[in-house]
Amino acid sequence: DGGITQSPKYLFRKEGQNVTLSCEQNLNHDAMYWYRQDPGQGLRLIYYSQIVNDFQKGDIAEGYSVSREKKESFPLTVTSAQKNPTAFYLCASSLLPGQGAASGRADTQYFGPGTRLTVL
Amino acid sequence: AQTVTQSQPEMSVQEAETVTLSCTYDTSENNYYLFWYKQPPSRQMILVIRQEAYKQQNATENRFSVNFQKAAKSFSLKISDSQLGDTAMYFCAFMKLHPPFYFGSGTKLNVKP
Q1: What share of chain A is helix, strand, coil (3-state, %, to 5)?
Q2: Could you say which residues from 35 to 54 on chain A have a Cβ atom under 8 Å away from some Cβ of chain B?
C-alpha cells in the first residue's frame, strides 16, 4: 500500500525538550513538506525539501529543524526554541515537474494523517 | 509572494442544496495550479479538485466543480447536492510550476440535515 505515514499520532512534550516527528513515504516522491495547523486555522509551511540533503525554510521555520538523508524520510524536530509548539503537524509529499505519473500527478500533494503535539 | 484568500470563515447549507465557496489569489505568474482540499473531522487532507491555469475549461469531479476566472484571479468551488459527509474544512491552494504550495485560511462548511 503506497502512502505517507506519520508517527506518533499524539505526542506530549515537556517544556524545554526537543521532540522529533517522523514522516515516511513510499510513493517515490522527491518533494516533501511540513505544515503546522493551529485550531481553526489554515496550513503554514515550516520546511520543504525537493531533493535529498537539501531543504528550504518556509514561512515559520524558526524553532524547527529538518533533515533529508533519505528520499523516503523527512523528520521534523521541534526544538526548545519554538515558543508555542502545541499544534497539529502535517507532512506531505509530491512529485516534481517532469517526474513520472505512476504514483500521482506532479502538481498534487499527498498528505499523511498528522501528529498532534501538546506541550505540558 | 503568492497569497491565497478565503473570505468566508464559515458557511452552512441544507442537505441536497448547492453551496459555493470563494477563493481569490494573487500572483504574477501566468502558468500555475489551483486546488481545493477537504479536511473532515478526522483531519486527513483530501484532494477535492484541481485546475491547471492554462486550461480554460473549468474542472469538474462528480458533485464538485470550480469557476475559474483567471483575469479576476478567482477560483470558487461549487458543491451540488450537498451531503452530510461534505461537512469539513475546505482549503484553497495555489502552486506555481514548482513547489512550494500556498494555502488559504480555510472555510468551515456545515451541511445541515
Answers
A1: 0, 50, 50
A2: 35, 40-45, 48, 50
Does B44 sit within 8 Å of A108, measured CB to CB?
no
Please indicate whether, in this complex, the C-beta atoms of A33 and B44 are within 8 angstroms of each other. no
CA dihedral of B94, B100, B105, B107, whole degrees rounded to 10: 50
**Residue B46 near residue B35 (C-beta atoms within 8 A):** no
Contact A45 B101 (CB under 8 A): yes
The per-residue pLDDT for B1 is 65
> Does pLDDT of B92 surpass 80?
yes
* Candidates B45, B91, B99; nearest CB to A50: B99
What is the CA angle B10-B13-B104, rounded to 5?
Answer: 30
CA B98 – CA A45 distance, rounded (Å): 15
Segment B6-20, tens digit of pLDDT: 999 999 999 999 999
**Tell me: the pLDDT tens digits for B60-83?**
999 999 999 999 999 999 999 999
Tell if the CB–CB gap between A42 and B106 is shorter than 8 Å.
yes
Query: Cβ contacts (< 8 Å) between A90 and chain B: which residues?
Result: 45
User: Which of A11, A15, A54, A64 is closest to A32 using CA atoms?
Assistant: A54
Neighbours of A58 (CB within 10 A): 17
pLDDT digits (tens, 9 = 90+) for A60-73: 999 999 999 999 99
Residue count (chain A): 120
Does residue A15 register a pLDDT over 90? Answer: no
